[in-house]
UniProtKB/TrEMBL annotation:
SUPFAM superfamilies for this protein: PLP-dependent transferases
Domain of life: Eukaryota
Organism placement in taxonomy: Eukaryota, Metazoa, Porifera, Demospongiae, Heteroscleromorpha
InterPro entries: Aminotrans_V_dom, PyrdxlP-dep_Trfase, PyrdxlP-dep_Trfase_small
Protein name listed in UniProt: Cysteine desulfurase IscS
Pfam families given in the database record: Aminotran_5
Limits of the Aminotransferase class V domain: 24-102
Cofactor (UniProt): pyridoxal 5'-phosphate
Length: 107
Protein backbone atom coordinates (compact mmCIF):
# COMPACT_ATOMS: atom_id res chain seq x y z
CA UNK A 1 0.00 0.00 0.00
CA UNK A 2 1.37 3.39 -1.01
CA UNK A 3 1.01 6.25 1.43
CA UNK A 4 0.07 9.43 -0.42
CA UNK A 5 1.05 12.73 1.23
CA UNK A 6 -1.66 15.34 1.75
CA UNK A 7 -2.02 17.72 -1.20
CA UNK A 8 -0.65 20.64 0.81
CA UNK A 9 2.72 18.86 1.12
CA UNK A 10 3.17 18.44 -2.62
CA UNK A 11 4.54 21.02 -5.07
CA UNK A 12 1.08 21.29 -6.65
CA UNK A 13 -0.45 21.81 -3.22
CA UNK A 14 2.03 24.55 -2.40
CA UNK A 15 1.26 26.24 -5.71
CA UNK A 16 -2.49 26.02 -4.99
CA UNK A 17 -2.01 27.53 -1.51
CA UNK A 18 -0.10 30.45 -3.01
CA UNK A 19 -2.72 31.06 -5.68
CA UNK A 20 -5.62 30.65 -3.22
CA UNK A 21 -4.04 33.11 -0.80
CA UNK A 22 -3.40 35.65 -3.58
CA UNK A 23 -7.05 35.38 -4.67
CA UNK A 24 -8.26 35.92 -1.09
CA UNK A 25 -5.88 38.87 -0.62
CA UNK A 26 -7.04 40.52 -3.84
CA UNK A 27 -10.75 40.01 -3.17
CA UNK A 28 -10.51 41.28 0.42
CA UNK A 29 -8.44 44.27 -0.73
CA UNK A 30 -11.02 45.24 -3.34
CA UNK A 31 -14.13 44.30 -1.31
CA UNK A 32 -13.26 44.85 2.38
CA UNK A 33 -16.67 43.80 3.72
CA UNK A 34 -16.54 40.31 2.20
CA UNK A 35 -16.30 37.34 4.57
CA UNK A 36 -13.91 34.40 4.25
CA UNK A 37 -15.86 31.33 5.39
CA UNK A 38 -13.95 28.78 7.44
CA UNK A 39 -10.52 28.93 9.02
CA UNK A 40 -8.11 31.33 7.25
CA UNK A 41 -5.25 28.82 6.96
CA UNK A 42 -6.47 25.39 8.15
CA UNK A 43 -8.32 24.55 4.94
CA UNK A 44 -7.83 22.56 1.79
CA UNK A 45 -5.02 24.12 -0.26
CA UNK A 46 -7.13 24.35 -3.40
CA UNK A 47 -10.42 25.55 -1.91
CA UNK A 48 -11.92 28.81 -0.72
CA UNK A 49 -15.41 29.92 0.20
CA UNK A 50 -16.09 33.62 0.46
CA UNK A 51 -19.34 35.54 1.02
CA UNK A 52 -20.62 38.92 -0.04
CA UNK A 53 -23.46 40.30 2.09
CA UNK A 54 -26.41 41.70 0.17
CA UNK A 55 -25.39 40.04 -3.10
CA UNK A 56 -26.94 36.85 -4.46
CA UNK A 57 -24.31 34.17 -5.14
CA UNK A 58 -26.03 33.22 -8.39
CA UNK A 59 -25.55 36.79 -9.69
CA UNK A 60 -21.85 36.57 -8.93
CA UNK A 61 -21.65 33.22 -10.72
CA UNK A 62 -23.23 34.67 -13.85
CA UNK A 63 -20.63 37.44 -13.97
CA UNK A 64 -17.77 35.00 -13.41
CA UNK A 65 -19.12 32.62 -16.05
CA UNK A 66 -19.11 35.46 -18.58
CA UNK A 67 -15.40 35.88 -17.77
CA UNK A 68 -14.73 32.15 -18.26
CA UNK A 69 -14.34 31.44 -14.53
CA UNK A 70 -16.08 28.36 -13.12
CA UNK A 71 -17.26 28.54 -9.50
CA UNK A 72 -20.21 27.44 -7.36
CA UNK A 73 -22.40 29.15 -4.82
CA UNK A 74 -22.90 27.93 -1.27
CA UNK A 75 -21.09 25.01 0.28
CA UNK A 76 -20.43 21.77 -1.58
CA UNK A 77 -23.30 20.09 0.29
CA UNK A 78 -25.85 22.65 -0.90
CA UNK A 79 -24.59 23.56 -4.37
CA UNK A 80 -27.47 24.48 -6.65
CA UNK A 81 -29.90 25.09 -3.81
CA UNK A 82 -31.64 28.47 -3.50
CA UNK A 83 -31.70 28.13 0.29
CA UNK A 84 -28.76 29.45 2.30
CA UNK A 85 -26.19 26.77 3.07
CA UNK A 86 -26.89 25.01 6.36
CA UNK A 87 -23.13 24.57 6.73
CA UNK A 88 -22.48 28.31 6.50
CA UNK A 89 -25.38 28.99 8.86
CA UNK A 90 -23.88 26.49 11.34
CA UNK A 91 -20.57 28.36 11.06
CA UNK A 92 -22.42 31.43 12.34
CA UNK A 93 -23.06 33.29 9.09
CA UNK A 94 -26.35 35.12 8.63
CA UNK A 95 -28.73 33.95 5.90
CA UNK A 96 -27.91 37.12 3.92
CA UNK A 97 -24.18 36.40 4.00
CA UNK A 98 -24.71 32.67 3.29
CA UNK A 99 -26.81 33.46 0.20
CA UNK A 100 -23.96 35.57 -1.16
CA UNK A 101 -21.32 32.86 -0.86
CA UNK A 102 -19.02 31.74 -3.60
CA UNK A 103 -16.99 28.51 -3.63
CA UNK A 104 -13.85 28.32 -5.75
CA UNK A 105 -11.81 25.15 -6.20
CA UNK A 106 -8.42 25.48 -7.87
CA UNK A 107 -6.87 22.74 -9.90
Amino acid sequence: MEIVPPLRWTPVGAQCVGLRDRIVDEITRRIPDCVLNGHPSERLPNNLNISFAGVDGESILLGLDLQGIAASSGSACSSGSLEPSHVLLALGQTADVARGSLRITLG
